């Protein structure tokens, strides 16, 4: 087969404790999935059906343990926000997945950041337009190594937190997800056939806020290690 130009490399995430790489196919993100975060963004956190937005696969940037990613401050924004999230990785294909079987499709978990050009997101939201320029920009999804669910379990509870320059900014528990990982997988699979390689960013707790050049973020989910990012 001849290509017009060389195909881009496959985006991958390292698997913790292994030399294996997990190829990324699609990235789905759940909006406002913690009640306190919904309130801080000015919305009613009643348990309405979840909604989703996407990032391109190459927005994912692998951040190996023991390293700090130097993340360039993105263009065309003056209000860049951090959002720490539990990331679920799909390892088994399915559509219309029953909630009681949904976790069978989750291969593993990681810690991720949904970086957000908040000013651009709000501008688009106010005029009823898509959020892509606020959410789907280059390198907007730094992600730590993946852990196999067979080894770490399914995080129905556990601390999730983020510090900026050593100061607590976000601190909650995955038990406070409005829609659990299983419910999210089941609901999403009604609209998209999930395939191995899909990532689901499951939502961020309260405490989101801005970072500027020079700020260092450290975030984690209990049992998954930490993610370290420096804005440059």
List keywords for this structure.
232 residues; alpha+beta; six-stranded mixed sheet; 18 strands
Structural commentary:
The protein has five helices and 18 strands. The chain is α+β, with helices and mostly antiparallel strands and 232 residues long. The strands form five sheets. A six-stranded mixed beta sheet has the order 4-3-15-8-9-12. A five-stranded mixed beta sheet has the order 6-18-17-13-14, with no helix packed on it. A hairpin with a 2-residue loop joins β13 and β14 (167-173). The radius of gyration is 17 Å and the shape is globular. 40% of the residues are buried.
> What characterizes the major β-sheet?
6 strands, mixed
The rough form would be described as globular
Which structural category fits the helices and strands?
alpha+beta
Low-confidence stretches: none
Average pLDDT level: 95
Annotation field: number of helices: 5
Order of helices and strands: EEEHEEEEEEEHHEEHEEHEEEE
Percent range for helical residues? 10-25%
Secondary structure topology:
Elements (H helix, E strand, L loop, with lengths): L11 E3 L6 E3 L3 E4 L4 H6 L11 E4 L4 E3 L6 E3 L8 E3 L1 E7 L15 E8 L2 E2 H9 L5 H4 L5 E3 L3 E2 H4 L6 E6 L2 E7 L7 H8 L10 E3 L7 E3 L4 E6 L4 E6 L1
Parallel strand pairs: 3-15, 5-11, 6-18
Antiparallel strand pairs: 1-2, 3-4, 7-10, 7-16, 8-9, 8-15, 9-12, 13-14, 13-17, 17-18
């Amino acid at each position: 087969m001849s290509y017009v130009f060389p195909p881009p490399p496959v985006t991958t995430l390292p698997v913790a404790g292994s030399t294996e790489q997990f190829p990324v196919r699609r990235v789905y993100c759940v909006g406002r999935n913690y009640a306190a975060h919904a309130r801080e963004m000015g919305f009613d956190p009643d348990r309405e059906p979840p909604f989703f937005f996407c990032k391109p696969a190459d927005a994912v940037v692998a951040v190996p343990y023991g390293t700090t990613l130097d993340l360039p401050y993105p263009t065309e924004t003056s209000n860049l926000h951090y959002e720490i999230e539990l990331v679920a990785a799909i390892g088994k294909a399915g559509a219309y997945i029953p909630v009681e079987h949904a976790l069978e499709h989750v291969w593993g978990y990681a810690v991720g950041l949904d970086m957000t050009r908040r000013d651009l997101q709000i501008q688009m939201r106010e005029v009823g337009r898509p959020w892509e320029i606020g959410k789907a920009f280059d390198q907007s999804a730094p992600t730590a190594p993946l852990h196999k669910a067979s080894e770490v379990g399914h995080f129905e509870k556990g601390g999730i937190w983020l510090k900026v320059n050593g100061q607590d900014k976000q601190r909650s528990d995955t038990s406070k997800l409005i829609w659990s990982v299983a419910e999210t997988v089941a609901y999403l699979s009604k609209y998209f056939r999930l395939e191995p390689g899909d990532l689901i960013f499951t939502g961020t707790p309260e405490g989101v806020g801005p970072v500027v050049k020079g700020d260092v973020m450290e975030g984690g989910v209990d049992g998954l290690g930490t993610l370290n990012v420096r804005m440059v």
